[in-house]
Amino acid sequence: MRTAVVIGTGLVGTSAALALASRGVRVHLVDHDPESARTAAALGAGTDEPAEGPVDLAIVAVPPAHTAAVLATAMRDGVARGYLDVASVKGGPRRELEAMGADLAPYIGSHPMAGKERSGPLAATADLFEGRPWVLTPTPGSDTEVLNLALELIALCRAVPVVMDADAHDRAVALVSHTPQLISSMVAARLEDADETAVRLCGQGIRDVTRIAASDPRMWVEILSANPGPVADVLAGVAADLDETVAALRGLQSADEDKRRAGTEGIQDVLRRGNAGRVRVPGKHGAGPAAYEVVAVLISDRPGELATIFADAGRSGINIEDVRIEHATGQQAGLVQLMVEPSSAPALAAALRERGWSIRQ
């Protein structure tokens, strides 16, 4: 691939353009808002000047509601040899293209499973897709050359290709992406009118659950509008679990011993099933979550503290598998949770204590 055009210079489009440009591909940037394309160009994502002729690959990075129309226009104008979109739903745009009578041979649907709470070109990074799944949804009629271009794009972005059926993809993202977004927003919405004394008690758990609730509502309305059925199906299952959990909690309030016992069993069941589902979430290197030991270190909010603790941990010769930071409410301090193999935890804790760090159990 020597040339590409990115149509839509938001977070995903600009990030793909940055990755391609950094690896020597000449990228042309197009957006309905010329200022957005100019911003992406100023970041080094390519040029907002039009291409002189057909490019190798056109990457359409616009909201799902507009994906098919933009693709059809680009294909009609012959802007590229191959066409690919990065919309978060796949079945709808493909069916719209078919209804328009478009030739689907030079087109492949795709969806990089990467994003941020922030949107727009200024949020883009060339490494956004590194190590992340990038779904491809080719059809039996997809041109082999276009499939190769799509695979080259994914390789240049250092993502991991995953081939799926378009409708199977939409059901999958309803479960692992779209429903979690709604549930996160619902939990965060409980905080809007909560008493300030309750909000001040927020810890890492509520921060984890509500992190993605900071996402752009307009963007998510567009995504959910393109995949409402599968999301509603998943939410219906969650709603059934909620009803059963509410009934179990009411049972725990009862003076009737049998109802209390049934309530306990109901709560245990939902927590057990949660444990079983969590184990299936891919962890490091794609494996299931490992049972790491946490070494919690008290740090102050001063420049260089994190760099120093990582350097001291590195001197111990122990690999840090993961890290989290829990901030202390209202204080200029917090806990860095260093996650290591269980057998390494005592040695790391001892090494950090020797260097003056305060270890918390």
Automatic annotation (TrEMBL):
Enzyme class of the recorded protein, top EC level: oxidoreductase
Residue ranges of domain Prephenate/arogenate dehydrogenase in the record: 1-289
The keyword Metal-binding is annotated on this UniProt entry: no
Name assigned to this protein: Prephenate dehydrogenase
Catalytic activity: prephenate + NAD(+) = 3-(4-hydroxyphenyl)pyruvate + CO2 + NADH
EC number: 1.3.1.12
An annotated Gene Ontology molecular function: prephenate dehydrogenase (NAD+) activity
Keywords tagged on the record: Amino-acid biosynthesis, Aromatic amino acid biosynthesis, NAD, Oxidoreductase, Tyrosine biosynthesis
Coiled coil: none
Family that this chain belongs to: Belongs to the prephenate/arogenate dehydrogenase family.
PROSITE patterns: ACT, PDH_ADH
Pathways involved: Amino-acid biosynthesis; L-tyrosine biosynthesis; (4-hydroxyphenyl)pyruvate from prephenate (NAD(+) route): step 1/1
ACT domain mapped to chain residues: 294-361
